Amino acid sequence: MSELVAIFFGMALVNNMVLSKFLGLCPFFGVSKKLSSAFSMGIAVLLVMLVASAVTWPLFHYLLVPYGFEFMRTVIFILVIASLVQIIEMTIKRTNMTLYNALGIYLPLITTNCAVLGITFINIDAQYSFIQALTAALGAGAGFTLVLLIMSGIRERLDLADIPRVFRGAPIAFLVAGLLGMAFLAFGGMVR
Question: Per residue in 97-124, pLDDT tens?
Answer without folding.
Answer: 887 887 777 777 777 788 999 999 999 9
